[in-house]
Amino acid sequence: MPPAPDIVTQSAPLMNILLFLPLAVALVILMGRKLLGVNVCVFLAVASSAICLLCAIMNLGVVGSETIRLMPFLMLDGGKLLNIGIDVLHDGQSAGMMFIVTLIGFLVQVFSVKYMEEDDAKPRYFGALSLFLFSMTGIVLADNLVMMFVFWELVGLSSFLLIGHWFQKPSAAEASKKAFLTNRIGDFGFMIGILLLFGVNHGDVTFAGLKESLLMGPLKATSEGQGWLMTAAVLCLFMGAVGKSAQMPLHVWLPDAMEGPTPVSALIHAATMVAAGVYMLVRISFLVAASEMGATWIAGIGGITALMAALMATQQGDIKRILAYSTLSQLGYMVMAVGLVGMSGEAMGGNAGHPAMFHLYTHAFFKAMLFLGAGAVIYSCHHEQDIWKMGGLAKHMPVTTFTFAVGTAALIGVPGLSGFVSKEAILGVAWEECKWLFAAGAFTAMLTAFYMTRLFIVAFLGKARSESSSHAMEVRLPMLVPLLVLAFLSVFSAYHFMEAPLKAMAVHGHGEGHYTVMGISIAALLIGVIAAFVIYRGREKDPLSIKLFANKFYFDEIYAVLIKVFQDGLAWLVTGVEHVVVDGLVARLPAAVVAKVGQKARLLQAGQLQGYTFLLGVGVLLAIYVIVFVLPGVGH
Amino acid sequence: MSSLEIIILIPFLAALAIWMGAPARLTAVVASTVNLLWVLVLAVRFPAFKSATDLAFVNKHMVLDNPSIAFAVGADGVSMIMALLTVLVTFAAVWQIVDKPSMYHIASLLISGGALGAFLCTDLFFIYAFHEVALIPTFLMIGIHGRAEKDQRLAVAWKTTIYLGAGSLVLLAGLVWAVIEFSGGGKLTFDLVALRAQAAMSPLPATAQGPLFFLLLVGFGTLVSLFPFHSWAAPAYATAPTPVAMLHSGVLKKFGLYGLFRIALPLLPAGAQVPWVQQALLIMLLGNILVVGLVTLHQKRLDDMLANSSVMHMGYLFLGLAAGTEIAVKGAILLMFAHGISIALLFAICGRMRNQLGTLAMAKLGGIGSHAPFLTVVFAFGAFASIGLPGLANFAGEVMIFMGAFANGNPSSTFIPAQGLTSLHWTVILALWGVVISAVYMLRGYRAIFQGTPQTGLFMSDPGSGQWLPLVLLAAVLLAVGCFPSLLLDLIQAPLAPIATP
Fold first, then answer.
1. pTM reported for the whole predicted model
2. Which range of residues forms the domain containing residue B490?
3. Alpha carbons B85 and B112: distance in angstroms, whole number
């Protein structure tokens, strides 16, 4: 049965504001930007995100789990046949995630006011940011898979708009298209997964309904009788996460997405949207736990992505790309954690906390911080992004450097900082479940320490290596405040006073007391940092040159060939076949026969209306004759 | 006189008035505005008016006693939705005609009137006849005012005429067969309501429904460019003058589907489920989605791409027919409406671009977004709607079709986990890949034309002097129906067919 039709639309002012205020602002800016003027548009966007942040804070500390219907979406027969709504699942996980999204969203908008000062398409930029906040909120609050899919695609759209903000630039236009299409491939799987569950569970795709059904319902019967169907559904849903969270082999869009404005990279392509895949996987962690093979695949893909992306990051020169590969790598950690927890057969998430959610939460702050820091650097260096053309920035931009150092320390897992705590939680599960993945995770941790230290040394220490970096100046207060707030959170977000209202984020029970794990990860940290110091201190250019890593394992080149051969080649071939064979057999051959007979038809030139009217008249007469004189004779 | 009769008459009268010398643009715009508002009012009042047979605003003038033929009108939810589609697209198409011979207005109104007649009549004879009436101006406009060299446009016009003529003949044969089969009480009748009642009372055995359903499928299918009977459509749309391309691809083409859903399906509810028909249908619709999808990918000009995409997207509607569950069929009806609006919007913009730029070759264009931001936004609405972005109308229809194919536990199940995936489900999965293909060609086109650096010598401006109105109207409809699909779904509450038992 579909979900009980007695879900009535409730008034939930906080939820309505959270979801629909950003949409309203986006629409107002889209339609009235000429009327309102630039400043009003910017003000509306920033103010609305502040209001959303307040709502999200008021929402914290949820203990229960309830469903609130905001509006119906697809309803047939009063909900008895089909009942898909825009419904809010209000629990610890969604409340905690909302806090992250709105807080970083607000800080990024504040930062953007200064960063985008000279852009003449500011209303479009802030409108798209509001549209993004709307879509992301929808994903976070979604109580069913179809609603999640709806907003899933809408964040894809807002990401498309923001990556392509400077659409006149061919590289930005290409990157935005690539991001949308790669995500579409992931969504292809996501939709199949939804459909399978829709079918198995009799039209109920709410998370609560699926969970219940897995305990005692059609889903239980299917997972016992047709386990392959469950595995297929889980892996198909996972495919959506592979696209959105940029896992191997669909990771190629994320580094290119750095063509967008840097604050966008901080919000969307580091902290929130790309984490949506992980968020979704945690939401369905009970399904992952029900399919061992699915869980193993998820853990494996996550581990490979973490390792591979870290290897690629070691050889990049563009500050944003280094951070982008680092994001890929950290997302790989989170996905691996989902798989590992699934392999242990436990279902976490909801109000229970999950190591993947925990890392998502700490990572969001320090990675947003690092990106905004990179934004500040790029701003001061007149849009120079190559770290080998920076250097010595610590002297010119002390506050930015300090915050960047804090973010780096959190990312590489210096004990005592948030990143350390959450990474330990993941490595702890890996230690218990799969030693291979633990090894991959620990090695990745070493690489992370290595490439981040490399970045910091090359860009901030030493001497200035170009005009632009020698003239860099500390950024102004509106850009520093977000950096400082995020730096504070990077340190303390895993501490008790922060984590207490966000209970659902933290992990309880796992990863504690593994002194071996802690020892190994501190050793990895030290090796990475020291190696980077030895290799990169005082260098003018990169002493290492590993082609395979620098060229990102040639994924883009391989895909380009595949697209050329299989997509464009196939299209060319099919077009030819369609034209010659199908059209030939169905249309041109008969037409040639008819043409021989119908030479007279040539009389009917264009404009000779009589010809056509004559034909029509004959036709009508014929029809009347048949009906009046022929038909009464046949039949009953 | 029923309101419906007046609605059908208005476009014909307006066309007549223009032919006799009335100011063309004014008359056409007024007539289509009146029709638009009137149909809107009727749609709002429809739930209150519909009778037990789900028909509202019924009226009947007997024309012939034996066989019984009547000029009978009546609207159920489906025809109400199709009428809404017709008047919306007509309004947009007529509004955007400027500085053209009055024949443009006359032809548009005739197509509109014919389509309304076909959608609102309940007598097979008139349903068929009105559709034929609407086709004639289509052919003429392609032949006379088509956008190609004379030889080429005449060739296209002839191809379309012959193709659709042949399809119509097959269809006529099928309809006559249906009339003979389902006329109860000793006398032949063309009255659809009576035929449906008879079919519900004494249905044909399931396997016997196959041949007749297939005949109707080929007949109606040719009109909807069902693969492999599709090769008329793309050149016709690419060549047709803008209002004709909008009206035919947006509205008139849907007649074939309308017929399948409102005539073939109720009379032969098990027809599409007969194994051989089902397999044939699945293969043909995959031809639409995958073969024509790849062909669309290969197109180098915007108009060719849009024309082929319109053929491709018909596959999803046939998928709704193949699945046959209530969710799927209602999804298909929603998608018919959505596709009509989105393709009309895209053709309207495409026509404007051809007038201003003189070329639609994607390789030559670029950066139009810098000069014409408004046009870029509305094009994006149409493009993203047609690739199924949630929040715009097409998605709601598509997702319902897909879900309908996986329905389980409803009165009719098409998905039983213990039996695994059937050919229907594999078709759905392949059709989903078509959604990816659509995104590839649409975004390639968008990237090539609107993004990037502006090309010298090719300048495009945003529409002024009220020309933005039809575009905004269509985009707003896409958004409204996409966010609130129940606006339309509530009109079709009754099941469309007696429950099929395959």
1. 0.91
2. 3-500
3. 10
